[in-house]
Write a structure and sequence with these properties.
It is a single chain. By secondary structure, the chain is an all-alpha fold. It is 63% helix and 0% strand. It is built from 14 helices and no strands. The radius of gyration is 19 Å and the shape is globular.
Length: 335
């Protein structure tokens, strides 16, 4: 019997092939030594981890819902998580304190060189479409990974987090849910809006940005890191969204595409204050021992985002697609 949800993607190596076969009921899980051999930020491990995590969201059409808590699958997922988390703690450790980590986020460089700067200044419509396709793995479930932390907070931190999440989910209005607004953006860009549609095309670097959210969100022990991640997203979103809104206008992406980022410019400027003062402030007032984890969450978020941005810019500056499978021209007005 099949269930609602996207189709399973094409495996990218022995790990994802083993997880895929197990989810289909057609084979065994990979061995622990295969996890140890896989490149931690590579396609195979990141896709295998994504497959495990997605069972906690909408699942897959071919996979019974009971697989979500399968103990054997959880064991192999734990081994992949251990490698991913260990690599992040080694590679992304920058700041010793939350204040130092936040200070870096609050400074806008005079001459930015990131993806949003590129798209605003010189990006072409095909590059805007690729960016949206890769980001759709998160934006079509925007705010959902962060919701896992709500039962793990209380008092001022919980109230602040819930207030921001309520805005992300449209303030009670279905048509204003940010995931729905992003689907409208995709329609403007001639992209398909089916949940998970671009999973096969998405790079390992993009998968890592989404996997990290799930990793932090699904583990109570990492609640501080999840708050750090959330703060990074909200603090950097407003200026980044302003640049992307300008890119949408300059490339003629369409009114819904412009609206999505215009909405984030305004909303996230307010969210930044709530997150800094209520969510982080409230959390550390109650649990000051989590300060190093909050700083780690900030640094890890910047690390995976910089890797994703470097992948995009390297490909685009070489005039090649950043996707594993280049996009088709799916709408008549895209040329």
């Amino acid at each position: 019997m099949e269930h609602e949800g996207p189709r399973l993607p094409t495996p990218r190596g022995p790990l994802s092939r083993g997880v895929d076969a197990y989810l289909r009921g057609a084979g065994r899980l990979p061995r622990l030594e295969e996890v140890a051999r896989a490149e931690v930020y590579g396609d195979d491990l990141q896709l295998a981890l994504y497959l495990c995590y997605e069972l906690h969201y909408r699942g897959f059409a071919e996979v019974p819902p009971e697989r979500e808590w399968d103990p054997d699958l959880l064991r192999i997922r734990a081994a992949m998580e251990k490698r991913f988390l260990s690599a992040l703690r080694t590679d992304a450790h920058v700041h010793e304190s939350v204040d130092e980590a936040l200070a870096g986020l609050l400074v806008e460089p005079v001459e930015g060189t990131g993806v949003t700067h590129f798209l605003r200044a010189e990006g072409e419509l095909w590059q805007v479409r690729e960016y949206a396709a890769q980001r759709s793995l998160y934006h079509l479930k925007e705010a959902d990974p962060h919701a896992w932390v709500l039962p793990r907070l209380w008092g001022r931190a919980k109230a602040g987090m819930a207030a921001v999440e309520f805005d992300e989910w449209g303030g009670g209005r279905a048509e204003r849910v940010h995931a729905a607004l992003f689907a409208d953006l995709m329609t403007d860009l001639g992209l398909e809006t089916t949940y998970g549609r671009y999973l096969d095309a998405t790079s390992a670097e993009a998968l890592a940005t989404v996997n990290m959210m799930s990793l932090f969100g699904l583990h109570r022990a990492l609640r501080g890191a999840l708050v750090g991640h959330f703060a990074t997203v909200e603090i950097t979103s407003s200026p980044g969204s302003r640049r992307l809104a300008e890119a949408m206008r300059r490339t003629g992406a369409g009114p819904a595409a412009e609206h999505f980022y215009d909405e984030h410019v305004e909303a996230d400027a307010v969210h930044e204050q709530v997150v800094r003062h209520d969510v982080i402030g409230g959390l550390l007032e109650q649990e000051p021992q989590l300060a190093p984890d909050v700083a780690f969450g900030i640094d890890a978020t910047e690390f995976v985002e910089e890797r994703f941005g470097a992948r995009l810019l390297t490909d685009w500056r070489a005039s090649r697609s950043s996707l594993r499978t280049p996009l088709a021209l799916e709408a008549a007005h895209i040329s």
